[in-house]
Amino acid sequence: MTRSDRPISPTAIRLLATMLLATPLLLVACGPQADVPESQASAAPAPSEVPAIEAEHLEYLRANYEKSEYMVPMRDGIELYTIVYAPRDRSREYPILLFRTPYSIGPYEPGEYRNPLGPSREFDQSGYIFAFQDVRGQFKSEGEFEVIRPPAPEPRGPTDPDETTDNYDAIEWLLAHVEGHNGRVGQWGISYPGWQTVMGMVDAHPALVAASPQASPSDMFIGDDWHHNGAFRIMYAFSWLSGNARRRDGPTETRGARFDYGTPSGYDFFLNAGSAATVDELYFHGDVPAWRDFIEHPDYDEFWQAQNALRYLDDVRPATLNVAGWFDTEDFYGPMSIYRTVEEENPGLENTLVVGPWLHGGWRRMDGDFLGCIAFDTKTSLHFQTEFQFPFFEYHLKDEGMWDATEANVFLTGSNEWRAYDSWPPAGVTSTSLYLGSDGTLSFEPPSQTGDSAADSYVSDPANPVPFSAEERTTLGHLWKVEDQRFASERPDVLVYQSEPLEEDLTIAGPIGAEVFVSTTGTDSDWIVKLIDVYPDDAPPSANCDVPMGGYQMHLAGEIMRGRFRNDLENPEPMVPGEVTRIEIDLRDRFHTFRAGHRLMVQVQSSWFPAYDRNSQTFVDTYRASPDDYQAATQTLYRSAEHPSRVILGVLPR
Fold first, then answer.
1. pTM score of the predicted model
2. Based on CB atoms within 10 Å of each CB, which residue in 64, 105, 408, 615 is the most buried?
3. Three-class SS of residue 461?
4. Cβ distance 568 to 534 under 8 Å?
């Protein structure tokens, strides 16, 4: 990453002063899974003050911005509906800030304004030309919508449009038809709009000089919305696709209705529904093309590989600000892998990473001072908005302010402080193994016991899968990644290993790996490993929830591996009953301090339902499994000197 400094202007000083008094955004604009409980809403301002603040800002927008609507032609003749909000003050030129989304750019009514227009209110006050576009096939745009439409094979022809060309064509049209711009364009977005931003970075328009993909997916089979390591995220996929990806008759202003589950329990709903194919027969009836794609492509074939955004990031030119949340349940693999790939493939490019203690898109719609029962002490979202996001665009699009961010800017949970490093993971991290031991122990010392008797077993029954959350709900939600795991540790089909209380703080940074040696009586199985921070018995209560914090088992990191894909995602293999098998799982990155007096815990299980569909535990097509295919299996985890199951941590020196 390259960095440079410029003196801060008087205008920027005034704007920074305004930002320090501003409150984070409360509006949700990043995706369908935005059902955050009221207890998670911003703590400032008071709820009674929010409408007044929003109304005052709306009046500011109406007085200072003019709204225009266009049908913007793409290279194949399809027209995309676009709204532009331009400053009424024409005494100077402004950069264009582009936002492309499948979630609607409304309000569509004349005279009605989005509020705010920018990623935060500071952008509105500073002055930008804000361009919003309904992507191809969504809402008021023409064409057919394809979920995660991959770039067309090279060479592209005039009839081979994709999201990269639509991004390019949108920018080209705006530069030619919108007056008062300074020739520079920035793009940003969270979740699917974040992926649109990544597509804008591929074969980027020369005017696109700054891009901020936030919580963008990169690979929908390996680690983002639809699958993790081949395991199907049936609950989230169902709710997203049912509301956002049904066939349509033509352009519309109407949002899809939320699906009526007929029960408050998603656990019961998906247990009764059965496999993905049965779900389609019962509820979608072929009306959701992407769901049929899942069924037709059960392995990591070219269909999924073509969607992998990382394949196309070898010639990125815009300065890039990557944003991720440690506890994002949808897209954490995506932004981290995008950051790493851009870094590796584009030496010398300015490529900045910011990771905070947020849920999916939480940096835009919450203060970020707590999540569920876990407090972070400071308003991390406001810090991100004022210290990174706004200065990044001001500097690159206006030559204003000072942008000298270190490459990796990461929030250390547990200790609750921001840290800055020249790279991620930071230098000096030591790979350290945490071994699963006898009698549920967890130790930094390798096991000495030998033989296959050094093992623990449980019965995994697809008719009674381990729930992903203690909460009864029909959608995945956002808080289960920090949820108290005591509900799971009490089950007989969850193995629990726990360390002694720590004598001093232990800080981990970077990727977390798991290597477990297992066997099954079936021919396929899921293997889930979770790393947990166990609070001491005398931990004080949380001001944010009613759950007792003494003995709280904070879910810090966890991941799944579908056994058939243990060696190759493209070519699944059955597991051999009774054969000891090595399973490696990437639990993804974390930056966390286990405080003195806390314990480390590891839980191992074979279902995580209905966050992930049930593994039938027989080597059949999981998407088309029949009721008879679902079979109970005895699972064994080995912890001997020959087969030392462990979790590998990157430990940062004190």
1. 0.92
2. 615
3. coil
4. no
Residues 6+ apart with CB under 8 A from 257: 243
Name the class of domain 430-652: mainly beta
What are the per-10-residue average pLDDT scores of the chain (654 residues)?
A: 36 34 34 35 46 89 98 97 98 98 96 96 97 97 96 80 96 98 98 98 98 98 98 97 92 89 97 96 94 97 97 97 97 98 97 98 95 96 97 97 93 98 96 98 96 97 98 94 97 98 98 98 98 97 93 98 98 98 98 98 98 98 97 98 98 93
DSSP state of 16: H
**268 phi/psi in degrees, rounded to 5:** -70, -40
Backbone phi, psi, residue 281, to 5° = -65, -35
Q: What is the dihedral of CA 112, 116, 117, 122, to 10 degrees?
A: 150
CA atoms within a 13 Å half-sphere pointing along the CA-CB vector of 367:
19
**CA-wise closest residue to 359 among 609, 40, 95, 62:** 40
Whole-angstrom distance, CA of residue 547 vs CA of residue 488: 15
Strands 370-371, 417-421: parallel, antiparallel or unpaired by DSSP? Answer: unpaired
Give the per-residue pLDDT at 654.
85
Residues 367 and 154: their CA atoms lie apart, in Å, by: 44
Distance CA 454, CA 523 (A): 23
Burial 136-151 (b: 16+ CB within 10 A, else e): bbbbbbbbebbbbbbb
Q: Per-domain residue ranges for the chain?
A: 10-219+308-421, 227-245+258-296, 430-652
Terminal Cα-to-Cα distance of the chain (whole angstroms): 27
Contact (Cβ atoms closer than 8 angstroms) between residue 640 and residue 451? yes
CATH domain 10-219+308-421 topology: Rossmann fold (3.40.50)
